[in-house]
Amino acid sequence: MRITNVPQLNDVRTMVRLLEMMGVKARAQPHEVELDAGALTEPYAPYDLVKTMRASILALGPLTARFGEARVSLPGGCAIGERPVDLHISGLTAMGAEIAIEAGNIHATAKRLKGARIFMDTVTVTGTENLMMAACLAQGETVLENAAREPEVSDLARCLIAMGARIAGHGRT
What we know:
The protein is of the alpha/beta class. 33% of the residues lie in helices and 21% in strands. It is built from six helices and nine strands, in the order E-H-E-E-E-H-H-E-H-E-E-E-H-E-H. The radius of gyration is 15 Å and the shape is globular.
């Protein structure tokens, strides 16, 4: 996959390093990243990278869906106030994952995620994105109610659709 118009931010560089640690082949150039996750082997996002950025929680849903297991350190990097990850956890639990918090890691396991109707008490961009990505590999249909509608959520939906996902309703009011 080739992604263009990529901002040159520390979070982007950190996410590329995190993906490489998991076995993703990555080639980054200014404003462009090429990724090949065919050899992804390690469903673990370690604290030393995760602590610097909140977005690392976005690895939890897709890794659980693909491998049946994921360990992601509780995220850091948030200086604008408390933004809990409970909606990510409750959404994955509704899809059949078992979740444990162990030594600062979120450990999720599931033989196979299953579609679910998930109502989010609070609108959350990263929660919507995480559950949307997990739902792409889940068995059955998932409906996210009270989902975020920000442009980045619609962009992710269009990206996933381009990769073969069936998603409807993104960005609608």
